[in-house]
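In response to the reviewer comment on reproducibility (Comment 2.3), we provide here a single inverse folding case reported in full, input and output, so that an independent group could reproduce the run without further information from us. The structure tokens appear first.
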């Protein structure tokens, strides 16, 4: 994890994997290690659930400024980020799929907006599934998946690509 967090301290980092694999937890841990004022845009989880996630992974919840945007309001998210990003040192978007419902819009948002922001600060984008349209512009890729072991415990895996 320490090598991955060093990589995530610059540019656009994409954390991807199947639903329930632990992408949000990984993004929280990475962001916590990278900087102190983090704008967290959520399209999936309400702030109280995220605070529990932050505590579970040992992240300092005081660093995170969480804004919950239900997918119905996705059109306002990019404007909100543009208007407020100067107040923060890093940005996490969980999930980028919640902002752009179609692949072509996802690529446009990632390349035209998030990638440009990543030149000034670390950006962590959580992606549900696999999105080759986003992967090609990412500076860093972190794959997350899980398997159940012989004892019935879930084991989570990370791979920096």
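Designed residues, in position order:
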């Amino acid at each position: 994890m320490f090598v991955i967090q060093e990589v995530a301290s610059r540019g656009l980092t994409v954390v991807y994997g199947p639903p329930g694999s632990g992408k949000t937890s990984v993004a929280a841990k990475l962001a916590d290690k990278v900087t102190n004022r983090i704008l967290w845009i959520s399209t999936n989880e309400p702030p109280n659930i995220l605070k529990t996630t932050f505590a579970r992974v040992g992240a300092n919840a005081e660093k995170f400024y969480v804004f919950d945007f239900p997918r119905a309001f996705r059109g306002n998210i990019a404007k909100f980020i543009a208007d407020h990003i100067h107040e923060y040192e890093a940005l996490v978007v969980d999930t980028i799929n919640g902002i752009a419902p179609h692949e072509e819009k996802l690529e446009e948002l990632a390349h035209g907006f998030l990638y440009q922001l990543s030149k000034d600060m670390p950006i962590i984008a959580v992606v549900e599934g696999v999105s080759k349209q986003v992967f090609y512009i990412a500076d860093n890729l972190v794959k997350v998946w899980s398997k159940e072991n012989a004892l019935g415990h879930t084991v989570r895996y990370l791979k920096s690509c």
